[in-house]
Design brief:
The chain has 613 residues and is α/β, with parallel strands linked by helices. The chain contains 19 helices and 27 strands. The strands form 5 sheets. The protein has an 8-stranded antiparallel β-sheet, with helices on one face. α15 runs parallel beside α19. The structure holds fructose -6-phosphate.
Length: 613
């Protein structure tokens, strides 16, 4: 969603800000803008553009201004007010001496706007953010410093924010504040950076501090001071950023999504590397080892997440129930707090999130916290809000995921849940032999993924046949039912073709009415304990002339007599099969979208990290 970048130092801020915005493009946005103060402190400039950052860059090239070494920039994903230049950030006061960029939502903006309008402030946008600028300006006009004015303004607003403000009246600082929307300060030598995502800092610095809710930071080129909203100074821990520049570049791939699908050979390996204790048939997960006993004694395990991470939670439900014997419940994070969830201190809650910033998942966490459950984070992004809010957790180690459609994070989340199932299972009833079998199968996955990726050309040829399809139905049973949901989600989000995932047996209770010769049906049918039943479902589709694409086991020759297309993949044990069966579905969605000429990495209306509820 919206992205923020800020720079203060001695270099020209403009290319740094534009480069930073480009690094945040993957988050999804509809407009972009930049606000700077000239080095002679006489001029301020704001430039905005609808559409891509490259358009903003073109406009900025024509900018006539003495060098600027302080500036803030933003990519906007519209919430209040349509995508337009007027609504894009930075927003500014009447004489353009104050600039502000803001992520989040100001909930009481209508009442503040009414009051400010009465006091003579004029509004030029339809955004909630603009009230913040005028509110800060009203305190500046009364003689408060920029820091104090931001503090006073924030004490009047309800809602969420990650914001940066600069002013010509104090041109040597950026004021930064956070509540509910991530921000990080990058520490350089005689320079500082601000960003809503560490990706914007990579290559500039490897040292950063994560800003927490309720903190305000005064950033100058030489130092930064963090204080609470009540002006108490706060000492911060400096973190190392371990991500390298090449990890966030596309390399030779045409799209990030394809790169990330191919990276699964390594990312799956990275997720279990150093975490297997083969002799003991168990896993070693530093983040939860000290509380593993408590998890094993939980009355219930509750998993909460959104989107693809929720699908990972559904697969994890099968794994955890099978191998730990503890009842498991999986909840949409976005629904969790709108019920009265029965969660107690005897439960362990897992919050699953690639980005670690999803607002709905964070909100579910806050609700669970009130109920004293053990809070565990399963995140990909190191240092993210969910990771920091958790009492303990496991990083999935998939590496940076830039493509909006989640791929490698999903398979890594499943690897981590397989390891958790073994770790907790071994503390309960799982035998040494069974634990070792799971771990050996885990170790064999990277080679099998490599084998599946060799089917890319075959899958591309199948995709060609379905570019004009209007609907897709995905069917799977048991462990592969959540994979059907995930395959359908991938197809919907990047190809804009309507797709639905169903448990295969549920088809006859309704969706079967949709089947005719124009309905492609993808059936996940590896040779496992539910194979015979899935074959019956295939027959039912066939009898109604549906076109069937099967994801089948490599040694299954009979299935070719029943289906129109078969994609043959290697086998593994049932619990790990989703890590393999999902890969052809990722590739299928990818190729259909590319053949339709769509923007695979930044599909319309979507954001990589959904930071509003
Ligand atoms: C789908 C997708 C989204 C995310 C969802 C949760 O490809 O990317 O459905 O899975 O927004 O995001 P995280 O995992 O970052 O909490």
């Amino acid at each position: 969603m919206c992205g923020i970048v800020g720079y203060i130092g001695e270099k020209n801020s403009i290319p740094i800000l534009i480069e930073g915005l480009k690094r945040l493009e993957y988050r999804g946005y509809d407009s972009a803008g930049i606000g700077i103060i000239s080095n002679d402190k006489k001029e301020t400039r704001v430039i905005k553009s609808l559409g891509k950052v490259s358009k903003l860059e073109e406009k900025v090239e024509h900018l006539v201004i003495d060098n600027s070494s302080i500036g803030i920039a933003h990519t906007r994903w519209a919430t209040h007010g349509e995508p337009s230049e007027a609504n894009a950030h930075p927003h500014f006061n009447k004489d353009e001496s104050l600039y502000l960029v803001h992520n989040g939502i100001i909930e009481n903006y209508t009442e503040i706007k009414a009051k400010l309008t009465k006091d003579g402030f004029e509004f030029v946008s339809q955004t909630d953010t603009e009230v913040l600028v005028h509110l800060i300006d009203s305190f500046l006009a009364k003689g408060s410093s920029l820091l104090k004015s931001v503090q006073l303004a924030l004490s009047e607003v309800r809602g969420t924010y990650g914001l940066c403000a600069i002013s010509k009246t104090e041109p040597d600082k950026i004021i930064v504040a956070r509540k509910g929307s991530p921000l990080v300060v990058g520490i350089g030598d005689g320079e500082h950076f601000v960003a809503s995502d560490v990706n914007a800092l990579i290559g500039h610095t490897s040292r950063c501090v994560y800003i927490e809710d309720g903190e305000i930071v005064e950033v100058t080129k030489d130092k930064f001071t963090v204080s609470s909203i009540d002006n108490e100074e706060i000492l911060k821990e400096v973190h190392e950023i371990s991500v390298e520049l090449d990890e966030i570049s596309k390399g030779d791939y045409p799209h990030y999504m394809l790169k990330e699908i191919y990276e699964q050979v390594n990312s799956v390996h990275d997720s279990f590397r150093g975490r297997i204790l083969m002799d003991e048939g168990t896993a070693k997960l530093d983040g939860i080892d000290r509380i593993a006993e408590r998890i094993a004694n939980s009355k219930r395990l509750v998993l909460s997440a959104c989107g693809t991470s929720w699908h990972a939670g559904l697969v994890a439900e099968y794994m955890l129930e099978q191998f730990t014997g503890i009842p498991v419940e999986v909840d949409y994070a976005s629904e969790f707090r709108y019920r009265n969830p029965i969660v107690t201190k005897e439960d362990s809650m897992f919050f699953i999130s690639q980005s670690g910033e999803t607002a709905d998942t964070l909100a579910a966490m806050k609700e669970a916290k009130r109920r004293d459950a053990l809070m565990l984070g399963i995140c990909n992004v190191v240092g993210s809000s969910i990771a920091r809010e958790s009492e303990a957790g496991v990083y999935v180690h998939a590496g940076p995921e830039i493509g909006v459609a989640s791929t490698k994070a999903f398979t890594s989340q499943l690897v981590v849940f397989a390891l958790i199932s073994v770790l907790i299972g071994r503390k309960r009833h799982l035998s040494l032999i069974d634990g070792q079998e799971i771990l050996r199968e885990l170790e064999s996955l990277p080679k099998k993924i490599e084998q599946i990726l060799k089917l890319n050309n075959q899958i591309e040829a199948i995709a060609e046949k379905f570019v004009n399809a209007k609907n897709f139905l995905y069917l799977g049973r048991g462990y592969n039912f959540p994979v059907a949901l995930e395959g359908a989600l991938k197809m919907k989000e990047i190809s804009y073709i309507h797709a639905e995932g169903y448990p295969a047996a549920e088809m006859k209770h309704g969706p079967i009415a949709l089947i005719d010769e124009n309905m492609p049906v993808i059936v996940i049918a590896p040779k496992d304990s539910v194979y015979e039943k899935v074959i019956t479902n295939i027959e039912e589709v066939k009898a109604r002339k549906g076109v069937i694409i099967a994801i089948a086991s490599e040694n299954d020759n009979e299935i070719d007599n029943l289906v129109d297309y078969s994609i043959k993949i290697p086998d593994t044990i049932r619990m790990l099969m989703p890590i393999l069966t999902v890969i052809p579905l990722q590739l299928l969605a990818y190729h259909v979208a590319v053949k339709k000429g769509l923007n695979v990495d930044q599909p319309r209306n979507l954001a990589k990290s959904v930071t509003v509820e």
